[in-house]
Amino acid sequence: MAIKKEIITMSTESAYQFLSQAAHDREFQQKFEQAANAQEFMQIAEALGFDFTPEELKAVVKENSEGVKVRRQTGVWRWLRSVKWI
């Protein structure tokens, strides 16, 4: 999965790294499945060493999902659809 990078800040870079890891690691994705809301999701992300805001993650997801047509039932886009607040 190629991740586009336009305007980069330290926390935006962290969001890109998060998305990249989530795209390739099902065990990583599973760590977030019990998060009931954005706050719990972010606590897990922070515990794993990521430093970004929900808004930054949403922006990175939006930027990288433009033109994506989800046809498979696997991968990061399917997983992100299960994250209710994104």
Task: Outline the fold blueprint.
Layout: H1 10-24, H2 26-30, H3 38-47, H4 54-65, H5 76-82
- From the N-terminal CA to the C-terminal CA, the straight-line distance is 19 Å
Percent range of helical residues: 55-70%
- Secondary structure tally, helices: 5
Portion in strands: under 5%
Output the helix-strand order. Answer: HHHHH
| Gross morphology | globular
Sheet having the most strands: none
Strand segment count: 0
User: Structural class, judged by helices and strands?
Assistant: mainly alpha
Radius of gyration: 12 Å
Low-confidence stretches: none
- The average pLDDT value, as a whole number, equals 80
Task: Give a concise summary.
The protein is mainly α and 86 residues long. 57% of the residues lie in helices and 0% in strands.
Task: Kindly describe this structure.
- By secondary structure, this protein is mainly alpha-helical.
- Helices cover 57% and strands 0% of the residues.
- The chain contains 5 helices and no strands.
- It has helices at residues 10-24, 26-30, 38-47, 54-65, 76-82.
- The model has no long low-confidence stretch (mean pLDDT 80).
